[in-house]
Amino acid sequence: MNIEQAREFLALSRCLNFTEAAEQLNITQPALSKHIIALEKEFNCRLLDRNRRGVNLTGPGKLMFQSATVMVEEYDKVKAAIGELKAQVTVRLVGDLQDEDDSALASLTAVVARQNNLATIVLAPACDDPLKKVLDGEADIMISYTDPKYLNEQGLAHVPFVTRSLVAVVNADHPLATRESLHWEDLRGQTLLKFVSDKTNPAWLQFERLSESCGFQPKSRAVPASNNFEFFSTPLKNDVLIWKSTERNLGLLLDTGRRIGVPVVSEEACLTSYAIFKQENREQLEPFVQAVKEARELLNARKPHRQG
């Protein structure tokens, strides 16, 4: 008898009605009957008397009721205790969470992890080299744009955190401005703005890998920039600015600068931030990964409401 069979038998024993018990358990009445018959076969005895007047517990059934009650109570106690123990695990997060997409998912992940007794997630103090903080054991996970190939070469574990679609921003008189959409390979021969900063360099690595997969090396014009004002105020000339389509200020950039945003629709064309950690900590950090999945599902479920 497993724990679910015990719960089903208890529900039926308390109300002595198959239909009512099935509704409480959110299963069908035939399924409940099948499970009870299987339980009687397992113990080779009748647990219930079924007749026109109703259902009653037999002698063995009363004994089973007592044992199943203890079994379920002890199971729930152990499960709750393990949950509390797991919640005592603290995951230290480090990285630039100024990006609103990363910040939203990280915040909801912390809530989900705590509510589900998975872990307690805290934000480690900011630093100039968050990856070193992870390697030195001063933080557990870094959230960052970076190139998965580089992480593999460094022997670091990583899972996708937030994946964003891309948009190509060009001046209104640019040849690409008339396109409704484009694929990454359409950027072959175009000059892309390459913002040079600690924040944007890892993202550029992803663009380089994407170009290599399409069989070309991206042409670029380097522009020193450290904040959104510099990103958005840089003259495009005849070049192309690749940016995430979820950028909150993207509409402002397009409205005031006589610029056009063309969606990049290639399935592989995206900008992804990663949760990065040491390989030996993978099992320990599995609760964090699980919380991220649940938080992402919650955010995705809310998207239609935000759009409406």
Verbal overview:
- This protein has 308 residues and is of the alpha/beta class.
- It has three domains: 3-85, Orthogonal Bundle (Arc Repressor Mutant, subunit A), CATH 1.10.10.10; 90-160 and 273-307, Periplasmic binding protein-like II (D-Maltodextrin-Binding Protein, domain 2, 3-Layer(aba) Sandwich); 163-271, Periplasmic binding protein-like II (D-Maltodextrin-Binding Protein, domain 2, 3-Layer(aba) Sandwich).
- It contains eleven helices and eleven strands.
- The protein has helices at residues 3-15, 18-25, 29-43, 59-87, 100-115, 130-135, 148-153, 201-213, 228-233, 250-256, 286-307, and strands at residues 48-51, 54-57, 90-95, 120-123, 141-145, 156-171, 191-196, 219-224, 241-244, 259-264, 270-278.
- The strands form three sheets. Strands 3, 4, 5, 6, 9, 10 and 11 form a seven-stranded mixed sheet that branches. It has a two-stranded antiparallel sheet with strand order 1-2. Strands 7-8 form a two-stranded parallel sheet.
- β1 (48-51) and β2 form a beta hairpin.
- α5 (100-115) crosses α11.
- The longest helix has 29 residues, at 59-87.
- It starts with a helix and ends with a helix.
- The model has no long low-confidence stretch (mean pLDDT 86).
